[in-house]
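User: I'm writing a tutorial on reading structure tokens. Could you give me a worked example: one chain, its sequence, then its tokens, then a sentence or two explaining what the tokens reveal?
Assistant: Sure. Here is the example chain.
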Amino acid sequence: MKKSKQKRLAAVGWRVGTAAEFLELDDIESQVVEIKLSLSEELRRAREQRHWTQTQLAEKIGSSQSRVARMEGGDRGVSLDLLVHGLLATGATRRSIAKAVAHRKKVANA
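And here are its predicted structure tokens:
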């Protein structure tokens, strides 16, 4: 958000902060959320790169299309285990998964 907009909001009584502050997440919880988001984004990218539909990926991991949609959407009910399983099904390697997590951290801290 632009600084000018932040100042206008603060001037009329709004408090400007981060999503983590709003949700009262501690540092560990915030990092877990960032990791899940990075894996979700990487899963969508990997699936699309292979020109697979969500249904095709779902068949490969023994799940449903709606579950894959929730995985890619960063749904809080999706486990890290399921995200990693989905990524491995697309052919991702440990290294590419680690890069995805590291990249998100860089973006989040920028």
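What the tokens reveal: The CA atoms of residues 2 and 84 lie 35 Å apart. Helices lie at 3-11, 19-22, 27-49, 54-61, 65-72, 80-89, 94-109.
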